[in-house]
Specification:
83% of the residues lie in helices and 0% in strands. By secondary structure, it is mostly helical. The longest helix is centred in the last third of the chain and has 41 residues, at 161-201.
């Protein structure tokens, strides 16, 4: 995978510039905001919904007082942007979400209808890993770590691409070897046991 492939895999050009630190101002703003929110929610003990409500209340009060003072002192009214969600921005969010949901439904169908033991094993490992991580970290900490890693991993990969590809290739071969051993020993037994029970019942 070369640099162009990395950019293509990221997709959106503005997102690629952000996480590859080409847009340094945006990257610093995103990382600083994430760090600030994590500190407020995790270290200072703020709750999410009261915090959002208080911020909205503060903004409404400031705008109301600003508008009143503008009338009293003959000053220009505060200029607000067009506060509406465009169809393009909604589709930008909805399309990846639709693809994700369809992928998850396809995996579930593959496990339930096609009885794909390999897919079942992969999903079980992923869900168990999520459960294990979630038992040690809460949602906001996991979200913060995802943002930090999302800002660090692409730039590190871009810089040390050749060495990382070599290590990943070796690791992938090792995982495939271990997986085949588990598949031969364990999964085949799981598939065979229900068949043998049915034969005994017959």
């Amino acid at each position: 995978m070369n640099k162009s492939h990395l950019l293509q895999s990221i997709g959106n050009a503005s997102v690629a510039d952000l996480i590859l630190w080409k847009n340094k101002r945006g990257g610093i703003l995103l990382l600083g905001s994430a760090t600030l929110f994590w500190f407020l929610f995790e270290k200072c003990g703020y709750s999410f919904f009261p915090f959002v409500a208080n911020i909205q209340l503060l903004l409404v009060v400031i705008l109301f007082l600003w508008a009143k003072s503008a009338i009293l002192f003959n000053r220009p009214m505060p200029e607000l942007p067009n506060l509406e969600i465009t169809e393009a921005s909604l589709l930008m969010v909805a399309d990846p979400l639709r693809l994700l949901i369809n992928t998850l439904l396809s995996i579930a169908r593959d496990i339930y209808v096609n009885r794909n033991a390999q897919q079942f094993f992969r999903v079980s490992v992923v869900l168990w890993s999520i459960s294990l991580v979630g038992s040690f970290l809460n949602f906001f900490t996991i979200l913060y770590l995802c943002i930090v890693l999302g800002m660090l991993i692409p730039i590190v990969y871009e810089r040390y691409q050749k060495h990382i590809d070599e290590k990943l290739s070796v690791t992938h071969r090792m995982i495939q070897t271990q997986y085949r051993k588990i598949d031969e020993r364990l999964l085949q037994k799981l598939i065979a046991n229900p068949t043998s029970k049915i034969k005994k019942m017959q």
